Amino acid sequence: MCNPCITLKAFAREFKTHNDRLRMFAAAKTNSKWPYVFGTSPWFPETSSTLAICRTVLAAIQVVHLVWNFSMHFEGGFWFIYLTHLTQTIVTAYSVFACLTAWRALPKLREKGPSKSEETRLPWFVSTSWALFHVAMPAALLVVVLYWTLDNPVWNLKFVPAYMGFYVHGIIFVLLLVDLFLGRNVFYLKHVVFFFAYVLSYLIWSIVHGALDIGKYDGCDAYPDKEDCPIYGVLDWNKPKAAGILSVIIIFFVVPLCQYPLWWCVFKRRLADFVAHHEDESKDESRGTSASAADKDAELDVVA
C-alpha cells in the first residue's frame, strides 16, 4: 500500500490517455458509474443515505459561515477583493453541489437491473460538482499555506485571528478533507487547469486592482492613502519586482504542490477501497494466489 513505485506508476499514468475513465464534459461509457463514484462512501452501505446526510450537514455549515462572513465583512463590496473570500464562495458552492449530487445518486443506486453500457454524458450537476471539487480542494489548501506562511506567519504571528479567521484559513480545509475521505470522488491531475486558471485569474485581478487604485476599505499601514493599498501586503504591485517573483513562485511551485498531496490522498483512499472490496475475489483466482497491490493498483482506472 505504501510502495513508492506503485505511487510513481500511478502518477505517470495520470498524464496518459484513458478511455476507461470518467469524462467531465464528454461522453463515455464509464460515466454511467457516476452514482457510485459521487454518491457512495467506503464507510456506509451503497444504498444508504448516510453520505447524503453528511454532505447536507457539511453544506449547511459552509452556507452558514459564508453568509456570516459576508454580513460581517461586506465593507461596501470590498469583501470580494480577497482570495480567501472568493475561495470560501467556491468551497461553499462545491459543498452544495456535492450534497445535491449525493441525493440525486440515491435513486440510481437503489434501482434494480443491469447498468447502462452506452456512452453518456455526466449530468450537469455532477460535472459542476466535480469541476468545483478540483478548484475548491487545492484553493483551500493554498489559502492555508499562504496565510500561515506569508500573510500571518505561524512562527511570528502579527495577531491572533478571531474565530472566522481560523475558519477560513484552516477549518474550512479540514471540512473538505472530511468530505474527501467520506466519499469516493476522483481527483485527476489533468484537471489542474481549472485551479491554475483560478490562481492566474486572481493574480491578474490583483494587478488590475493596483492599476485602478481600488485600495482597501480600512486602508493599511504601508500607505497613507487607502487607494494605494494592495489587497495583500506580500503581493504589492507598487513593488512590481517582488510581486512578480512571488507570482512566479506561486504559479510554478506552490500551485503544483497544492495538487499532489490531494491527488495522493485520493489515490491511496481509492487503492485501499479497491483492495478491501476485491480481497475475497483475489483468493479465488485460478492462479491460486492473491493479487498483488500492484495488480490491484493497475486496475484502479477501470473502477473510476
From TrEMBL:
Give the record's GO CC terms: membrane
- Protein name, entry field: Transmembrane protein
Specify where the region named Disordered lies, as residue ranges.
282-304
Asked if the keyword Nucleotide-binding belongs to this entry, the reply reads: no
| Keyword set, alphabetical order | Membrane, Transmembrane, Transmembrane helix
Bilayer-crossing regions: 79-103, 124-150, 162-182, 189-208, 242-263
Origin organism is Strombidinopsis acuminata
Q: Which stretches are tagged as biased composition: Basic and acidic residues? A: 294-304
